[in-house]
Amino acid sequence: MAVLFIAAAAVAAWAVAEGRRQRDRTAGVLAAQAAVLARSLGPGLEAASAAAREIEEDAWVRILDNARLLAAFQASGGMTPDLAAGLAEQNDIASIYRLGHATRPRNLAGETIPAAVLQQAQAVLTGEADELLLGIDREEDTEHISAAVRSTGDSAVLVRAHVASARAFAAGIGVESLLRTLAGSDGVLYLGYTESPGGRLQWASWDGEALPPEAATGVLRTVRSRVVYEAVVPVSAPAGFDAVLRVGLDGEPLKLASASAARRTTLVGIVLLFFSLALAGLAVMDRNRSLEREAATRKMNEMETDRRRSERLAAAGALTAGLAHEVRSPLNAISLAAQRIQRKHGGEDECGRFAAKIRDEISRLDSTLGDFLALASPVGRERSETDLFRLTEGVLDLLGAEADAAGVDMVLAGENCVVQADPGSVRRAVINLVRNAIQASPPGGTVQVGIETADGDGLIRVQDEGAGVNDALGERVFDPFVTTHALGTGLGLALVRRVAEEHHGTVSLGNRDGGGAVAVLRLEAARTGDGPS
User: Fold this and answer.
1) Span 74-94, mean pLDDT?
2) What pLDDT, on the 0 to 100 scale, is given for residue 420?
3) What is the mean pLDDT of residues 192-209?
4) Could you give the CA distance from residue 96 to residue 155 in angstroms, rounded to a whole number?
5) What is the mean pLDDT of residues 263-289?
């Protein structure tokens, strides 16, 4: 069985490894294709970029030449609006302005020039420069280049032209033109070229749409319903610049390789699952047999425990029967005699005090015999509807004198809770729990008794403020004759457990977080009433 499992695991591992190798091999081919494409395009991109820069520089030269020509016309007095308009149209000039010291700038032809540009051009009137290239300014989405040339001592000419025309010409023979010839062919979906520092992204794609945001190299992604493998590769650039090329290749081959590997892995996984289920079934069967053996052993142990408990109860019953016959009659006689002595002498002299002591001890012995009788006698089989709240209220009234003598307060809280029970046996159980709590609590302490309903069962919760329960006793605390009280018999909690078991319930005893002990008697099939009135 273990050999089959190992074999299935080995086949699964092989399938996974084979799928990864196939995927890595295809990814390697695509990466090599991107590198070859970058090496092939590098020189062409470098040349196209340099040419585009030269074209843009030529646009600067032309705008400055136009400004010089117009300044010469202005100096000779031949500049008129009609002449300015004609020259603007012939030389693709956007605006022509005449500037003067004592006059406001005058628009001779074309568009209005922003005040910021006019302010920069004032430098030629102040003598800071005879000629001035003002660089590129942006107005909304349009870029312009401007040049100012002084014509006479107190005037100058400002010329402004669109950058777009120069860039459009450069694009026709530049980088983007080269990228467009390749995008959409031979598995190349898109290309993006960027120079640094300060370069803008130039791109082309198979569908003319913009490039997606840059992704990690070697990762498959979906771009407009196409599977793409992207790589970013350095390429050669003009002097003083660095450049990279983003290559988006058709990733369908890599996707197919991954799908093929996934199918093989799934097939092997099914086989592995079959063997695993078979092994798991055998393991479950073996586990069930083990659990059955454990359950049988536990049942035998419980039966043995019950037998020993029954033997102890039987012994207690036999002893009780003998004690009841042999002891109670003499005790009654002694009690009557002590009562007569106490009545004759009162409680003032020594003889009366001894008589009272004798009666107290006889009462304690009689209570002990009562515990033996209750433990040995069967729990009543006649069940009736019993209100646990009312029953417990009566118990607290009965034990009120004991609590007062011990200096302990008793508090009852909760709700009416009705169960089918033998009220006499339940009452004896509650008396034992509350009496134990009174005896455990220090003077000034409080015994809290609560009646509640939980999951359809009735709960009687008794809490004291004593020293708590010795954890070393464990469940033995419910065994007969096990007690930590010097004058106790150890029969009270044994009786409580017997009552709980006869009513198909439970009893638990533990320690409270704030100190003291808490006992919980749980009885089945409780119904919540309207609450105490």
Assistant:
1) 80
2) 85
3) 85
4) 13
5) 72
What's the sign of the alpha-carbon dihedral 36, 38, 39, 44? positive
Question: Could you write out the DSSP letters of every residue in 227-258?
Answer: EEEEEEEEE--STT-EEEEEEEEE-HHHHHHH
Question: Which residues make Cβ contacts (< 8 Å) with residue 61, sequence separation at least 6?
Answer: none
Domains of the chain, first to last: 381-528 (3.30.565.10)
Query: Does residue 143 sit in helix, strand or coil?
Result: strand
- C-alpha to C-alpha distance for 249 and 186, rounded to whole angstroms: 9
pLDDT band at 461 (very low <50, low <70, confident <90, very high): very high
Mean pLDDT for 237-247 is 83
What sign for the dihedral angle of Cα 358, 360, 365, 370? Answer: positive
CA distances in angstroms from 499 to 255, 371, 386, 448, 522, listed in the order given: 73, 13, 14, 21, 10
Strands, E, within 423-483: which ranges? 446-454, 457-463
Cα–Cα distance between 47 and 40 in angstroms, integer?
A: 13
CA atoms of 485 and 364, how far apart (whole Å): 14
Give pTM, 2 decimals. 0.38
Cα 153 to Cα 156: distance, rounded to the nearest angstrom: 8
How far, in Å, are 45, 467, 517 from residue 513 at the CA level?
A: 80, 12, 9
Region of poorest pLDDT, from 392-396, 468-472, 528-532: 528-532
How much is the pLDDT for 125? 82
Cis preceding linkage at 197, omega within 30: yes
